[in-house]
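Person: Show me a sequence?

Helper:
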Amino acid sequence: MLKIWEKLQFLEKKVFNNQIYKTQGYNSQRWMQALKKNLHEYKNSIKKDCISASPYRESILPVICALALEDKNLSKKKLKIADLGGGSGWTYLYLLNSGLKNKINHYQIIETQYVKNKMNNVFLGKNISYTNSFNKVDIFYTNSTLSYLSKSDLLRDFFERIQKSKPSYVCIDDFYGNLFVNNDYYALQNYYGGKIPTRFFSFKNFCRKINNLNYRLILSQPYISKILGVWTKSLPMRNFPKKYHIKPLTLIFKIKK
C-alpha cells in the first residue's frame, strides 16, 4: 500500500528544520505543470459548460462571498479578498464563474516568489494581483496551505496577517486539524520522489489562537478532497495510529463585534 505520509514526528524541528528532508516539492517543475494543467482544463470546462463547470478542488469561497455581501454589518457592494497560497488563481476564476464577476474589488494572491514568477501573467487585469503586502481585506481565504507552512516564518505570518488586515471572515478549506490531540504533530508527505514536511494541527489550539485575534468559529464541516483520483473525506493514514488520523475540514471564522 502506498504511504502518502510517513515518519510521524512530534518535534517540529525534526521535520521542518532538518536539511535531509528539504525537497523541491511545491516548488518543483512537476507541481507547476500540474497547476497550469488543472487551470487550463478548468478554463476549457467553463467554455463548454459555463456555470455548471466545477473546479478541480472544492472551495467554499463563493458561498462566503455571497454571505459577506448580504452582511448588514459589512455593508459592502464589492469585496477585497486575500488568498494565502492561491497558486494559479483558480479560486478567483471560480468566483468569476459563480455570478460574482462584478462583486470583486480586488483579489490578492499571497504566494512564494517562485510561484509569482511563474504565474504572474496568467490573469491580466486590475482586480487580481500577486503580492505579499499587508492590505485591509474583507475575506481572508486559504485552501490546503497551512499544513505546509513552518512555524518559524509563514505560519506566524498567517496569524499576523489576520491581525493586521482585520478581515470580516477567515475561511480555511482543507484544514488538517485533529479534534482529539492537544498538540500539533508532523510527518513527511511523499511527492514523486521528494518528501514534503507536513503539519497536522491540534484543532483546539488552532481555534484558540484565532479566537484570541477576536474571531469566533461559525462553521466547521468535512472537506471533500481528491486523493489519488478518489474523492474522500478522510486522509489515507492507516500506517499511523488511529488517534492521529485526519479528516480534513472547512472552517469559517467571523470577526467579533
